[in-house]
Amino acid sequence: MKKNSELVGREQGLVTPPPLAARDKTQKATNCIAKRSQSIYKPSTMTASKDEKQQTPDESVTAKETKKHKKKADNWRPLGPRDPFAMLNALPEEKQQEIQRALHLFNLGPTLPRTLEQAKKHQYHFWDTQPVPKLGDTISSHGPVADGERRVRAEPYSLPQGFSWDTLDLSSAAVLKELCTLLNDNFTVEDDNTLRLDFTEEFLKWTLQSPQWLPQWHCGVRVDSNKKLVGFIAAVPTDLTVYAKEINMVQVRLLCVHKKLRQKRMTPVLIRELSRRVAQRGVQQGLYSAHVVLPTPLSTCSYWHRSLNTRKLMELKYPGVRQDIAVQRAVKLNKLRDATKTAGLRAMTRADIPALHSLLQSNKSKFDLSTNFSVQGVEHWLLPRDRLTFSYVIQGEDGGLSGAFSFFSLSWEVLNDPQHLELREAQLLFCLCPSADLKDVMEDALVLAKAKGFDVFTALDVMDNKTFLENLKFNMSGKRTHTYLYNWKCPTVNPDKVGFVLPI
Q1: Is there a contact between 500 and 370 (Cβ–Cβ < 8 Å)?
Q2: 152/27 same-domain check
Q3: What's the structural domain count of the chain?
Q4: 139 with 490: CB under 8 angstroms?
Q5: What is the pLDDT of residues 293-331, one digit of tens each?
Q6: Is 345 found in the same domain as 264?
Q7: Higher pLDDT, 12 or 409
Q8: CA of 352: how far to CAs of 340, 356, 429, in Å?
Q9: Strands 422-432 and 456-460
Q10: Which helix (H) or strand (E) holds 25?
Q11: Residues 183 and 65 in one domain
Q12: Which range marks the domain in which residue 39 is found?
C-alpha cells in the first residue's frame, strides 16, 4: 500500500524527489546507457566500469536492449580491412574497366608534350645538348647541325650503379624471347589502357635484321644481380634522300626502358650510347620517329583507320570508330565487296623483286623525303612473310608491273576485356599505281586484308594516300607520328611529300 501511495503521490506531484545520492546513481545509469548507445557508431568498444557492472534490474533490461541494437549495427560494419583486389573483382566488369583506365591515366607520370603548343613551354634538358634543330628556329639551309667530324668517345657511357651494357645476340632464341618480354610489357600501351603491342620473334627479326645490320647496334641494359634485360635501343642502316641529297644514315628502332626505371634518366644514356656506336662506323646522321613532340619535327603525319571488323571495333570502343550509330548500321556502312576487281592483281613473288625495285626507284623523285631501296632491301622488307608482310603487284598485259601495294601486320593484346583477347591491325607501307585508279586498288587492299582476318586497316596521310582516305571511309584518329633527323637540318616536309612509312 505504501508503494502504491508513493506512486500516486508522484503522479500528483505531492512526493518529494529522492535523495541526492539516489539521483546521482540514477544519473550514472543514464550516462552509462548513453555511452553504450554511442558505442554502436564507434569503431572501437568501451570497457565497462565498476558502476556499470553493478546494475539494477531496470538497468539490466536497458543494457540488453542496447546490446541488441549494437549487434544489429555491427552486422553492417566490415570485419577488418578488405582486400582491395577482392573488392575490385566483386564489381561489375564494366566498372572494373573504368577504374583500371582511370588508374592508368593517373599513373602515367611526367610525359613529354604531344602538341607543338605544349612543346614550346617544355624544357628539353637532354635534347638541348644534342645536334638537332631548336624548336622555333626558321630553317632554310641544308646540312649537318654539327659541322665537321665529331670526336667519338672510345669508352661506353656510364650506367647507374648495378646496371651494365649488353650487345644482344638476336641469333639466340632465348635472347629473342627475352627481348619480346621486355617490349611486350613496357614498350607501348594506349593511353586508355585498353591495348598493348604484342611483339613476336619473327617481327623482331624483320625489323632489326635488315640488310647490312650490325650486332653492335643492338644495345641492351641488364641488371648486374640477376642479368634481367631492362633497357633496349637499336639502329639499322638505311639510305635516305632528303631534298635530292642522298645520305647514308641509320633508323633508330624500339627504344624501350622498363617501367620502373623511367625516372632514372636511362633513356638519354641509351641514346648517347647508340649514337657513339653508330659514329664509330663513320655514320653521323639518324632517322627516328615518336608520338611526342621533340626538337624538332621534320614532318608530322596523322593516323587514319578503316574498319574491317566493325562490330568488334565498336565493342572495344576503338579510336576513330563512330559510337553514335547502331551496330547494324555501322556494319552496313563499312561493308566491302567480296572479291578484288583490279585486273592482273596477284601476290608478290621472289621473281618480282627486280621489277618492283625499279618501280619504287622511279617513283621516289616525287617526294622530298624518301628511302633508297636496294634490291636486297626490297626482298627483306616487301617479300611476303606468313602473318607479317603482305605484298601484291599488278601485272600488265605486257608482263611488266604497273603497280603494287604492301602492308604489314601489327598484333595488339586487348586488356581488361572479357570477350576479346587480340586485335589484328594491317598498316599500309605504300600503294603505288601510276596507270590505275588508286582508290580502286586500295579498296582491293582492304578486301584482301579483311579476308586475311584483320580487324582494322591503318594508313598515314603520306605519299598519295590523301586521295583515297576519305573516299574509302577511313577515319582520322587523334594519334600522330613525328619524324626527326639527327644531326641534319633542312626545311620541314609536308606529309604528302614523305615517301615511306617506318614499321615502328
Answers
A1: yes
A2: no
A3: 3
A4: yes
A5: 999 999 999 999 999 999 999 999 887 788 888 999 999
A6: no
A7: 409
A8: 20, 6, 17
A9: parallel
A10: helix 20-39
A11: no
A12: 18-74
Last residue of a domain, one of 260, 284, 308: 284
Contact 343, 402 (CB under 8 A): no
Q: Which three cell numbers stand for residue 175?
A: 635472347
CA–CA separation, 40 vs 73, rounded Å? 6
DSSP bridge pairs for 413: 196, 422
User: What's 138's domain CATH number?
Assistant: 3.40.630.170
pLDDT in tens, 93-145: 667 666 655 554 444 445 678 788 888 888 899 999 999 999 988 898 999 99
- 41 and 139 in one domain? no
Flag whether 458 is in a domain: yes
Are 250 and 320 in a shared domain?
Answer: no
Average pLDDT score over residue span 436-454:
95
Q: Per the domain annotation, does 408 fall within a domain?
A: yes
CA dist., res. 408 & res. 385, Å (int): 9
Q: What pLDDT sits at residue 204?
A: 97
If asked whether residues 353 and 232 sit together in one domain, one would say: no
Q: What is the pLDDT of residue 103?
A: 53
Residue 217 has pLDDT above 80, yes or no: yes
Distance separating alpha carbons of residues 192 and 220, to the nearest angstrom = 29
Residues 465 and 324 occupy one common structural domain: yes
Could you identify the residue written with the cell 619535327? 297
Residue 50 grid cell: 565498476
449: CB partners within 8 A, 6+ apart = 308, 390, 407, 426, 457
Q: How far is 400 from 339, CA to CA, in rounded Å?
A: 23
Residue 436 pLDDT? 80
Q: Is the pLDDT of residue 191 over 90?
A: no
Q: Which three cell numbers stand for residue 496?
A: 604528302
The set of long-range contacts for 71-77, using a CB threshold of 8 Å and a minimum separation of 24, is 73/40, 73/41, 74/40, 77/43
